[in-house]
Amino acid sequence: MKRRQAAPSQRRQKAKRVRYLLLDVDGVMTDGILYFDESGREIKGFSIYDGHGIRLLQRAQIGVGIISGRSSAVVAWRAKELGIEDVHQGSRDKLAAYEMIRAKHHLQDETVAFIGDDLIDLPLLRRVGFSIAVASAVDAVKREVDWVTKKKGGEGAVREVIDLILSAQISKHNTRKG
Ligand SMILES: [Mg+2]
């Protein structure tokens, strides 16, 4: 069944409620291409704009977590660099990983946003309050989400989402000090 994207005003309402942003890695934080060096070590490229956005979000007291179907040392390293503590790798069942994060932070589905790009992300996208696909996501995913970003995975799509969340919540946060 096809679901229409939320209208801009609805999208803003959803963004306003977000207390926790969940990220897929391959194809969302990266361009979805797996690079390997000569010794078989994996190399990934991450957007500096996404990274800065994640820090802004954390500063606004909004949680950030990673749920990846694959497992890579590079992801653990990047997450550490960004101060992301909730990192679930090798999670083929993303709902199971989500349940752990949800319980840990006492989250309500309505206050959680998730950015995905492939079929494995669909069950979790259907569950959260604000579902987002990157421009480079597969069509089956783009059809089911509240919003499709203009930017592709690895090219600032995460930042695009964060900018929306922060601007929707600005009245709530611009009075905070520091
Ligand atoms: Mg992916």
Can you give me a brief rundown of this structure?
By secondary structure, the chain is an alpha/beta fold. It is built from eight helices and eight strands. The protein has a six-stranded parallel β-sheet with strand order 5-4-1-6-7-8. A two-stranded antiparallel sheet has the order 2-3.
**Oligomeric assembly:** single chain
Number of strands: 8
Give the spatial strand order of the biggest sheet: 5-4-1-6-7-8
What fraction of the residues are assigned to beta strands by DSSP? 15-25%
| Level-1 CATH class name | Alpha Beta
How would you state the average pLDDT, rounded?
A: 94
- What's the gyration radius in Å? 15 Å
Helix content: 25-40%
Find the structural class using helix and strand composition: alpha/beta
Ions and ligands: magnesium ion
The main β sheet shows up as: 6 strands, parallel
CATH second-level architecture: 3-Layer(aba) Sandwich
N- to C-terminal distance:
46 Å
User: SSE string, helix = H, strand = E?
Assistant: HEEEHEHEHEHEHEHH
Assign the CATH superfamily.
HAD superfamily/HAD-like
- Number of H/I helices: 8
Which geometry do the CA atoms define? globular
Per the CATH scheme, the topology name is Rossmann fold
